[in-house]
Design a protein that fits this description.
Length: 644
């Protein structure tokens, strides 16, 4: 089935159970939350990107009641927070950014005194509430039209062109721009939500839907969701648009705009198989359903692992299922990241390194080692590039455990966390053997499920369960060097793809004989990317033209291949590829592609700077704040050109 009716019938047929906590009006006493996750207290778990002081008072449950106003691009309503505190007359400190706070009330509806501190550009404003005896409070607020987590799209920015669209992106510290709570990954919270939106639109969230939407006043429908597991607040996510749903298996499916549904479902046909593969590796999937929301092109990331509902870029829809490793990645986060979560952004590698490693194991299980080795080998290339980009092997930001003092956590989100992290885990696997490592990981996810974690906590756990005082093993692994020192330890395991040996030979031979269409016709997209990245960086126009023809590069729909080609074209100021570049940058807002292309343009001196300025001025309004936040530093535009 691929109608919108299917959405109603299939997606949430199994929903049942208690709604009492979600339904309690703020006037009733706070029921104890189903689960209260621990907050770590060691110095390594102190989150410098949150104002919260959970030792004094912490939020355990967030209940949202919001209306999405597409005309003013705001969400307005209340957040009712359940709070735990053992302190006399405590002050609750929340994270907010650009929120208009109208009032804070206790459960009986009495105003509570609160203070909204001056705003820090990255952290936002601390909202301090004098609780007195209140342990359930209600914050009445409105989001700003430029709330960084929320991207409001006009109908023209969607595939269907008829309806507006809204999606959120909370990671790293953007949830505070639409939910006033303790926005720290170390302070897990259950949540529930009542959302009103125009009747024609579907509301999806990273939780379980409760019942059917109800038509309410003002041409709106009201939707209810809940998440009964405590999650990090960056995982509270919402999408609202003209959405259709197609089931892909008993517990998997995809939401996207109706006109894109068939192509999207085709691309994701292996989803159910992937979930089964992941479970066979590291234990049961604990979140119920696993659906995808494939977003309009401005989504800034490849994917975002919002629980039960991965948000994904439409750039994965290559037409040939060649980019599904991205889905394996987001799925793997259902264990690494969502089940066991970095307590602070300094340990982001605990989310991403584990996930990149796990992603590759899923790919191996579903598609075989020949293919997964290619992907791992491409990851090694990415790691080398990241080390170079960050300033070489001594650079502080090549450490897994980062020092982010005074910085936006986004600055730590480099390929070090992903690729050095994954390489570290591959090195452990090679050292202790896959069998023991897999058994350990499975238990690790169990022991720490729904809890925050630090680097020190992982190392302690690993030593307790695996190293067990074995000095020779400790020496061989070099755990502390991996986590706390810059560069790449000598025992790093590099997975060499056998297939790439041939590709590298062809790339080396290109300067002499070029390449023929016949030679490349059976290459996978991974092989094409490898080939393009291994070619000499300086090529003549004639060579580039020959390459483009042989590989049919100007017609590539695979975004990774297209990106690799455009990087090469920009490096050579190859004019025939510029319309393609212009189209690519206008057609999607994925930071992984947008940022490096603008960097490459700017690196080309006046020629590239002029082009970058023109393109960015044209495209910036279509990008999410996550992407503009990075590109603004590379391509400075006058305020007028930014549309401000
Ligand atoms: Zn990830």
């Amino acid at each position: 089935m691929n109608t919108r009716i299917a959405l109603m019938l299939v997606a949430f047929a199994a929903v049942a159970g208690c709604q009492s906590r979600d339904k309690s009006p703020p006037g009733t006493a706070a029921a104890a939350p189903a689960t209260v996750a621990p907050v770590l207290t060691g110095p390594d778990a102190k989150d410098i990107h949150s104002y919260a002081d959970p030792a004094v008072a912490r939020v355990t449950h967030v209940q949202l009641d919001l209306t999405a106003h597409f005309d003013t691009r705001t969400m307005q309503g209340t957040a009712t927070l359940d709070v735990l505190s053992s302190v006399q007359d405590p002050k609750l400190t929340l994270d907010t950014r650009k929120l208009k706070i109208e009032a804070v009330r206790d459960a009986a509806g009495h105003d509570l005194p609160f203070q909204l501190a001056a705003a820090d550009p990255v952290m936002g404003s601390a909202l301090q509430v004098s609780l007195g005896g209140a342990r359930r409070i209600q914050v009445l607020y409105t989001t700003s039209p430029d709330a960084d987590a929320l991207q409001w799209l006009s109908p023209a920015q969607t595939a269907g062109k008829q309806q507006p669209y809204l999606f959120s992106q909370g990671e790293a510290i953007l949830t505070r721009t639409w939910v006033p709570t303790q926005d720290s990954p170390g302070i897990r919270q259950t949540w529930s939500a009542t959302i009103r939106a125009p009747e024609a639109l579907t509301v999806v969230m990273s939780g379980e839907r409760i019942g059917e939407p109800k038509v309410v006043a003002g041409g709106q429908r009201e939707w209810q969701y809940r998440m009964e597991h405590p999650v990090a607040p960056y995982l509270i996510a919402i999408g609202i648009g003209d959405l259709a749903f197609q089931s892909l298996g008993t517990r998997t499916g995809v939401y996207t705009e109706p006109s894109r549904l068939a192509a999207t479902a085709y691309e994701l046909a292996d989803l159910e198989k992937m979930v089964a593969a992941a479970e066979s590796l590291y234990g049961s999937y604990r979140w119920g359903r696993y659906d995808l929301l494939v977003l309009p092109p401005s989504f800034p990331f490849g994917g975002m692992e919002n629980p039960r509902l991965t948000f994904a870029t439409p750039t994965i829809i290559a037409g040939d299922r060649s980019l599904v490793s991205l889905v394996a990645h987001e799925l793997a986060h259902s264990w690494s990241g969502n089940l066991v979560t970095n307590a602070t952004w300094a340990d982001y590698w605990l989310n991403e390194g584990f996930t990149d490693y796990f992603e590759n194991r899923i790919m191996e299980r579903v598609y075989g080692a020949r293919f997964s080795n290619m992907l791992a080998d491409l990851g090694w290339d990415d790691l080398q590039a990241a080390i170079k980009d960050l300033g070489g092997l001594q650079a502080a930001d090549t450490r897994l455990h980062l020092d982010l003092a005074g910085r936006d956590p986004d600055d730590g989100m480099t390929d070090i966390a992903y690729q050095k992290g994954a390489t570290f885990l591959r090195t452990i696997e090679a050292t202790i053997g896959r069998e023991q490592w897999d058994a350990y990981l499975r238990d690790y996810f169990d022991r720490h499920a729904f809890q925050p974690q630090t680097s020190a906590g992982f190392l302690k756990d690993f030593r307790e369960h695996v190293v067990k005082g074995d000095a020779a093993l400790e020496q061989k692994l070099g755990l502390d060097a991996w986590v706390y020192e810059p560069g790449l330890p000598a025992n790093a395991v590099h997975i060499h793809s056998e297939a790439f040996a041939e590709i590298d030979k062809s790339a080396a031979a290109f300067a002499h004989g070029g390449i023929t269409a016949a030679a490349v016709k059976d290459w996978t997209s991974a092989e094409r990317v490898r080939y393009l990245n291994r070619l000499p960086r300086k090529l003549s126009n004639q060579q580039l033209a020959q390459l483009a023809t042989a590989m049919n590069l100007e017609a590539q729909r695979n975004s990774e291949v297209r990106f690799a080609w455009l990087q090469l074209a920009v490096a050579n100021r190859y004019a025939p590829a510029l319309p393609n570049l212009e189209d690519f940058l206008a057609s999607m807002g994925r930071r992984k592609f947008v940022l490096p292309l603008f960097k490459s343009l700017v690196a080309q001196g006046e020629w590239g700077k002029a082009l970058a300025t023109r393109l960015y001025a044209a495209d910036r309004a279509g990008y999410h704040s996550v992407t503009t936040g990075s590109v603004d530093k590379v391509v400075p535009l006058a305020a007028a050109a930014k549309g401000q």
